[in-house]
Amino acid sequence: QVQLVESGGGLMQAGESLKLSCAASGRTFSSYAMGWFRQGPGKEREFVAAISWSGRTFYADSVKGRFTISRDNAKSTTYLQMNKMKPEDTAVYYCAADATRPYYGGSSFSRADFGSWGQGTQVTVSS
Q: H or E segment at 115?
């Protein structure tokens, strides 16, 4: 089991930047993929970005070119850098660990693949 703690949420103006962090513990961090999801008001939780154990990155079309996911294995932490933020980015952001597929070399990442979740952090973007 992996424990995850997010930090870095807040209230932003459109066009500004924000960086979220997610600290993991419990298993060998470098062996599994990490992801970020978000859930806006009245919406389903949706995929935002993922980073494989080897550093390959994947993004939802809605954030491609604006958001960057990264990881620091020495700190067991993954990050989500959000630039050029928009009001539609307003959501609770969750980090998640795909720890049941260590050293996964594929490119398919769905919500069901992530078995461990953080508590979420609120991001609000005003226009």
A: none
Contact 21, 77 (CB under 8 A): yes
Q: What is the Cα–Cα distance from 4 to 1, expressed in whole angstroms?
A: 10
33-50 b/e (C-beta count within 10 Å ≥ 16 → b): bbbbbbeeeeeebebbbb
Q: Starting from the edge strand earliest in sequence, which strands make up the sheet with 18-25, in order?
A: 3-7, 18-25, 77-82, 67-72
DSSP category for residue 75: G
Question: What's the average pLDDT block by block, 10 residues per block, for the chain (127 residues)?
Answer: 94 97 93 97 96 97 98 97 98 96 90 95 97
Q: Which residues contact 36 (CB under 8 A, 6 or more apart)?
A: 20, 22, 48, 49, 50, 69, 78, 80, 93, 94, 95, 96
Buried b / exposed e along 71-80 (16+ C-beta atoms within 10 A): beeeebbbbb
Number of residues assigned to the chain: 127
Residue tagged 């067991």 (tokens): 76
- How many Cβ atoms are within 10 Å of 85's Cβ, its own excluded? 22
